[in-house]
Amino acid sequence: MAEEALAKAGLHFDELNKIRVLEPEVAQQTGELKEECKDFLDKLSDFKKIVGTFIDVVDGVAQEVEKEKMKAIGSRNLLKAISKQREAQQQQLMALIAEKKMQLERLRIQHDALLKEEQGQTEFIEQFILQK
């Protein structure tokens, strides 16, 4: 009866027979909630550490990717420069070939002219010898 009167007044006895303002069941639930909150905070702290480590790893990978990207851009630019250089060299060689062909043709014409001249002189010498 005394417990009921105290319960109406909002006072309760716990398992150690101490007077409490909360009902024993609510006090137990509050304790469990406190433990769950502590576990949650521990897990959240662990998660935060894992995420921090993950972010560090991702930042490291991003830096490596950026380095490789710069290397690739440099290599591509070098390749383009070499390609342009080869094109210019090829054009120079083509111009030199054209010049040499023209020189060959000029020398061929000169050779033909000299052969005709030689033939004419040979004929002249033969006629001169035959007339003597």
Automatic annotation (TrEMBL):
<feature type="coiled-coil region">
    <location>
        <begin position="79"/>
        <end position="117"/>
    </location>
</feature>
<dbReference type="GO" id="GO:0036064">
    <property type="term" value="C:ciliary basal body"/>
</dbReference>
<dbReference type="GO" id="GO:0005813">
    <property type="term" value="C:centrosome"/>
</dbReference>
<protein>
    <recommendedName>
        <fullName>Intraflagellar transport 20</fullName>
    </recommendedName>
</protein>
<dbReference type="GO" id="GO:0061512">
    <property type="term" value="P:protein localization to cilium"/>
</dbReference>
<dbReference type="GO" id="GO:0005737">
    <property type="term" value="C:cytoplasm"/>
</dbReference>
<dbReference type="InterPro" id="IPR028172">
    <property type="entry name" value="FT20"/>
</dbReference>
<dbReference type="GO" id="GO:0030990">
    <property type="term" value="C:intraciliary transport particle"/>
</dbReference>
<dbReference type="GO" id="GO:0060271">
    <property type="term" value="P:cilium assembly"/>
</dbReference>
<dbReference type="GO" id="GO:0097730">
    <property type="term" value="C:non-motile cilium"/>
</dbReference>
<dbReference type="GO" id="GO:0097546">
    <property type="term" value="C:ciliary base"/>
</dbReference>
<keyword id="KW-0966">Cell projection</keyword>
<dbReference type="Pfam" id="PF14931">
    <property type="entry name" value="IFT20"/>
</dbReference>
<keyword id="KW-0175">Coiled coil</keyword>
